[in-house]
Structures are given as structure tokens and as C-alpha cells.
Amino acid sequence: MSHVSTATDTGLWSAYRQLTVGAVHTDLTHAFHPGQPHFPALPDEQRESVFDLARGDGFTVDRYTLVGQWGTHVDPPSHFHQGAATLDRIPVEEMFLPLVVLDISARVATDPDATPTLDDVADWEDRHGAIPAGSFVALRTGWSSRWPDQQAMVNRDPAGVSHTPGWSAEVLRHLLETVGVTAVGHEQLDTDPGIATSAGDFSLESYVLGRGRWQIELLANLDRVPEAGALVVASWPKPRGGSGFPARVFALHREP
């Protein structure tokens, strides 16, 4: 007699139950809205109710006018490099990855200009083993606690210089060239620290995207996710030739 599959043994459903039963789903995404923190050169979001149940229409439909780099968003390589991969060319296989959280929040609490070092990476690997190739590495700085206060997010001194944490060249080179991670993410507005962006220097973001990687900016709730052992799902719409778009990102993990 041929085997008749049931709902309990069909495809990946059994693996899905094993993966999700008892697991925690942590949203790593800010809900976007007009007036939220954003790169100063970009326009604010605008919304218009095209149809509205409150007005007696049969349904509600809103029109959103916003730039691609809005709220928690994805930057594909084409954001900085002409002819590089656009959003629709990032394969879905890259949207479900092991999540590594590199935590420098304690240092940022006393030094907003802090950036990660290779010692931070070595300490992480001492605790958890080697960072896996193909992973998503998120830089935890604690900066998302400042959302949605624009002034607190950019943190400018009286001279107009922004003091925010960011990545470092040595850590990004190690992650992208030695480890071979698929993507990176962070809580602040930019890849580069505020002192650099205040001088018009976005070289670290250019480097990440120039290596054919993508990144997520303005992540939230990294303090609720373990340093190792979680999985991340990052997804976004698929505009043809898209150079950026708001993303929905969440982590799947076990309680400590």
C-alpha cells in the first residue's frame, strides 16, 4: 500500500512545528509614520485617505508618499552603486538567516561615538563560537530607545556635529571579507558614526553595499534578542529596480 501523507508529515510542516512551538517572535521593526526621525535631506512622509470607512465609504484605502529609505528599511547595493543589485534582485534565500547580535550598548551609554572593535568580535566568539558565514550581524547600541525623537537620534552638539554610534571599518572588513556574512543591520540612522556623517563621510555604508551586501537600518528591540542562536526574517516589497524600501524584520528565538 502506498504511503498517504497527512497534515502531520507533509513537507516542512513538522519542522515548522518543531521550530516554532515555544519560540518567541520578536519584532525588530519600528512602525513608520509622518514626523518620525529620518535623514535630514529627505522629505517627510505624507498620507492621504483615498477611501475611508469613517466617511461612509465601503472600505479604507490610504495613499502613502514616502522615500524608500524610511523607518526600518532595507538598503540594497544599488542605493550607493549604479548598476549594482536592486531590491528585486536580492534572492529570497537571503531573507531568512542566522542572527548574530554584537552588543556594544554598555560602551555607547557612556560614549555615544563608540564603534565596535575586533576585540568585541573575539569576545563574542569566545562565548558562542565562530560567527557563521551567511549570517545577519546586527549591531546593538541601545540607540533605538531614542526613537521617535529626531533630536535625540541625531544627538548634535552646539557646533552641529552628530554624536551617534556606528560601525567600524575593521569590523566590517572582517565580517564581510573573512567571515562572509550576508547582511548587517543597526539601530541608528546610518552605518557610519555621526562624527563621520557630519563631515559628509558615508564610506562605510558605501563599502558594505559595494561588496554586494544589503543592510537594514533603524532596527528595534535588539535588547530582547539573544546574542546567538536566533534566526532573523527580513522582508520588503519588490519594486522593480528599487533602491530601498521600508522593511518588516523579526527574530525567532528561544527564551534564555
Please, could you describe this protein's structure?
By secondary structure, the chain is α/β, with parallel strands linked by helices. A nine-stranded mixed beta sheet has the order 1-11-9-5-6-7-8-4-10, with helices on one face. It has a two-stranded antiparallel ribbon with strand order 2-3. The chain is globular. This is Cyclase family protein. InterPro entries: KFase/CYL (IPR007325), KFase_sf (IPR037175). Pfam families: Cyclase.
Quick rundown:
The protein has 256 residues and is α/β, with parallel strands linked by helices.
SSE-based structural type: alpha/beta
Mean pLDDT: 96
Number of strands: 11
Task: Assign a percent range to the helix content.
Answer: 10-25%
Silhouette: globular
Low-confidence stretches: 1-5
Largest sheet: 9 strands, mixed
Strand content: 15-25%
Gyration radius over CA: 20 Å
Strand order of the largest sheet: 1-11-9-5-6-7-8-4-10
Total of helices:
7
Amino-to-carboxy terminus distance: 46 Å
List SSEs in N-to-C order. HEEEEEHHEHHEHHEEEE
Secondary structure topology:
Layout: H1 13-20, E1 24-27, E2 46-51, E3 61-65, E4 73-75, E5 96-103, H2 105-110, H3 118-128, E6 136-140, H4 150-154, H5 169-179, E7 183-186, H6 194-198, H7 203-210, E8 214-217, E9 230-235, E10 245-246, E11 248-253
Parallel strand pairs: 5-6, 6-7, 7-8
Antiparallel strand pairs: 1-11, 2-3, 4-8, 4-10, 5-9, 9-11
Give descriptors for this structure.
256 residues, alpha/beta, 9-stranded mixed beta sheet, KFase_sf, KFase/CYL
